[in-house]
Specification:
The chain is an alpha/beta fold. Helices cover 43% and strands 16% of the residues. α2 links the parallel β2 and β3.
Amino acid sequence: MDFGYEGKAVVITGSSKGIGRQTALEMLKLGAKVMLVARGEDDLQAAKEELIRYGEVDYVVQDVTGDDAGERIVNAVIEKFGRLDVLINNAGGAFAETFEDVDVGDWQNDLDLKLISAVKMSKAALPHLKEKAGVILNLTAVAGKNPDAGTLPTSVSRSAGLAMTKAMSKDLGQYGIRVNAVCIGLIRSDQIEKVWMEEAPDMSWEEFATTGREDIPLGRIGETREAANVITFLCSELASYITGVAVNIDGGASASL
């Protein structure tokens, strides 16, 4: 089965670890060239050393909230690979409190990281994506569809990302550019593994992932590769007629479609 990645150039923000790094691995194995982006050079270098055996990969050390971050990252991709076909906006983090406990600065920081950085990246990438009828994939969270108590400001930032995805898909479809989102639920990550080590160090991962998960219909925490596989499909030519959608990757936990 041909996913159509051979020779294509992909940039993934927030990709030194977790879902971003795993997605880079899956796409490299399918023939893509990948530019990793994150703030920490040590983690990026470690990721590159692991991934380079699978294909052509490099990295940019960059805080995506910087004023010229989009231009700097895209320029690095074009200089290295000569093209840009796929942009994956994955930068973000977990910051969730009650409305009363979140101050104005926290709101601004969260929006800058999760929404405005994706705007900057997409604007900088657009001229190149128009040339290739490229793809934009925005990572959000199931909280963006189903905000719960104590999920501010992240649920609002993620909801805004979903609205942006849908509107962009309608604006950019005329150029053949597809814009989709994935809504991440409880997926294995460094953060989840830290909780595992702190709360249940005597459990195996399989035990921890399945214990007390009655709120997840599939009964377990998702694996990183399971999220990466969905992203890889949505950005591939196999999904050539899919745009403007937001796919839940949550084991069925969300109440929304």
